[in-house]
Putative hemin import ATP-binding protein HrtA
Amino acid sequence: MAVIELKNVKKVYGKGNAQVEALKNINFKADKGEVVLIMGPSGAGKSTFLTIAGSLQKPTSGEVLINGEDISDFSAKKRNELRLNRIGFVLQAYNLVPFLPVEEQFTLVDKVKKQNNLSRDELNDLLKQLGITDLVKKYPSELSGGQQQRVAIARALYANPEILLADEPTASLDTKNVEEVGQLFKDLAKKRDKAVMLVTHDPRLEKYADHIYEMMDGQMTQKK
Ligand SMILES: Nc1ncnc2c1ncn2[C@@H]1O[C@H](COP(=O)(O)OP(=O)(O)O)[C@@H](O)[C@H]1O
Ligand SMILES: [Mg+2]
């Protein structure tokens, strides 16, 4: 069974003349163990798609299924729980807390979600795998873009989600960092059995993808 599936999803923003049909009729599936890229120009609907797939907002119509369960009508409380327990987000601005050093970005997660986070040893392994072990005492402002990105990925994974969603994860990274982050996403899918969905317009990520979708004017076409 697909870990995440969208059926006939539409999203309309605004009312009357100001209406924007951001998603027209989206049908999409992703499985564990796979990296899926969603590509397309600015304004195509990529972020809208990702936030609906991740239950940050509801579709105007259609179904969103997580492990076969329709979440489109979940209450705010149930959607919060779902996000907390099953879905990891890496958002465009990384969303690190500026006044906390790296190590406390993780203890913050413990305060919000008390169970099933990575153990101390698992976190240390993850930090090592990401090459950020030496950065734990530093503040976000002391890190490069690539380092912040890796800390944001580590924080999303710390809560041990089945699904990892990232919006433009390589924006502002140089090619070396793109290769590292791309390989990392691939390893997460293959070695940790996550479903990884990346919204990007960075062609340097294509070689890490199992599937590629192109989004244009609210419609999605599978390319690979
Ligand atoms: N909160 C919103 N209110 C109104 N229109 C929005 C909102 N978010 C996005 N849009 C519009 O929906 C379309 C798709 O936007 P978005 O999903 O952000 O695309 P992308 O991430 O591909 O750049 C655009 O026309 C955008 O202006
Ligand atoms: Mg966007």
User: Anything to note?
Assistant: The two ends are 20 Å apart (CA to CA).
